[in-house]
Amino acid sequence: MPVSEKIAAAAAEELRRLERPAATHGSLEAGRVTLAFGDGGESLSAQVFALQNASRVLLDTLSLPLPTSGVLVLDGDDDPRCWAVVVRMAEMSAYPPKLVTWDNVEGLLRLAEKYDMPVVRTACTDFLCRKAGADLSLSAPLTSQRNTLVAATLAERYCVASWLVATSHEATSHELVARGLEPDYEDEMSAFAYIVEEVLDSQLSTLKLRRQGQTTAPRAVASQLRPLVLNNDYATSISAAVQTKVIRALLDSF
To answer: Fold for domain 3-128?
Structure first.
């Protein structure tokens, strides 16, 4: 089949998919679906169109007959509390960025990744960027999203952070900007995620003061890093890219 015909056929298929009724079976005809969470008995009602509009995964799932009419059974590891926030975002019952907190940002990012929900990912990235300067600290425990290493890991894993590209050239995005160069961001979210990376770079840069004869500030940062690096969960909780930053900062201090 000629390329032009393939393109035309693909366009026709997309039009048929878009014109397909959002819900034509069971109780979905009322425009709502019940989200059921594993065996815990918890459930949540949501607008079908809102979920389809928010999630590229659910767009197709909710266009097909469900095993149990009107009920979408979600994975047992999905957090019902985070899904309640997602539904509010999808239905626009509240301004999305206002719904993100330090307690739910990781869970929301996991759902955004799993169900391909750009609006949720954007709200979480916005939250991390706005809070990075004032809230992030290396003194926070590894179990807290306020810990700079943890927040940087979230940005790198879920917000397509820029330092993956920068590290391959042995320079951080912060260093590239200092040289008057532009980091090679993959998309707009990467550019925003750079803010979290910049905070991490700034906090780790204190270690370099040791080479200038200063000891108090570098020792303070080292004392904050020690319990984090020695934590049994460090290797799995912190991404390889962020761990590399820590190692480089420590080596550069000598």
So the answer is: Potassium Channel Kv1.1; Chain A (3.30.710)
